[in-house]
Amino acid sequence: MNINGIFNPENRFFTFMDKILNLCLLGILWGLFSLPVITIGASTTALFQYTLRLIRNEEGYVWRSFSRGFFKNFFPATVLWLGAAAVGAFLALDVYCCQFLPFSGAVKWAARVALISLLIVYLLTIIYLFPLTAFFRFSLKKTVANAFVMAMGNLHVSITVLVIYAVCAGASLVFPELFMIWFALASYAASHCFRYVMEKYMEADVKIADAGAKET
Q1: Rounded to an integer, what distance in angstroms lies between the CA atom of residue 151 and that of residue 193?
Q2: Is the pLDDT of residue 102 over 80?
Q3: Burial class for 192, CB neighbours closer than 10 Å (0-12, 13-18, 19+)
Q4: pTM score, whole prediction
Q5: In the chain, what is the greatest distance between 2 CA atoms, to the nearest angstrom?
Q6: What whole-number distance in Å separates Cα of residue 89 and Cα of residue 71?
């Protein structure tokens, strides 16, 4: 047995533990910077600024990456967060108010199904907003449009991400004091899905650009 290999800080065990510790620190930073509530969008974008690079071992120091992502993306991420929160509250209120509609049961049921379907589309779309903001420099309108296209065009991936966060929510019910850590770990797992989808669209854009260049 190679003793030097066991205690080598670059072996797989120490690399894995280093990632876990960094994700724990990232989760704590995310929780602290999210406390004013209005800053949740910026802190979530900053979190993805780190995790989307961590999966390719491109990350830097946790604090430096997080703080840079937070302040650089503060305005667009905050606008997206406030808009998403407003739309979500509106849809949830509409679903609740369906029971008070002065129509027959069939009409109420149809309205409730339509609104719940919209709510699902909304959830699938918003999970892409902050990873896209962290990874690209799009306008707000284009970010929302791309989030919708990616969510609907990769339903199996989008549903997988929702399942990951559902597991995170379940773990938080058992150990609520570790919610920030669970969220960071779930976001790291989800980042594999997000980066897979985003790189797929990047490759498609490159192919289109290459085809256009050949035609000219």
Answers
A1: 11
A2: no
A3: middle
A4: 0.84
A5: 77
A6: 27
Question: What is the overall mean pLDDT for the chain?
Answer: 85
SS3 sequence of the chain: CCHHHHCCCCCHHHHHHHHHHHHHHHHHHHHHHHCCCCCHHHHHHHHHHHHHHHCCCCCCCHHHHHHHHHHHCHHHHHHHHHHHHHHHHHHHHHHHHHHHCCCCHHHHHHHHHHHHHHHHHHHHHHHHHHHHHHHCCCCHHHHHHHHHHHHHHCHHHHHHHHHHHHHHHHHHHHCHHHHHHHHHHHHHHHHHHHHHHHHHHHHHHHHHHHHHHHHC
How far apart (Å, rounded) are the C-alpha atoms in residues 53 and 46? Answer: 11
Mind listing the pLDDT tens digit for each residue in 152-199?
A: 999 999 999 999 999 999 998 888 888 999 999 999 999 999 999 998
Tell me the CA distances in angstroms from 147 to 28, 80, 195, one per residue in order: 27, 12, 13
CA dist., res. 160 & res. 156, Å (int) = 6
Cβ 131 vs Cβ 123: under 8 Å? no
For 36-46, what is the mean pLDDT?
Answer: 94
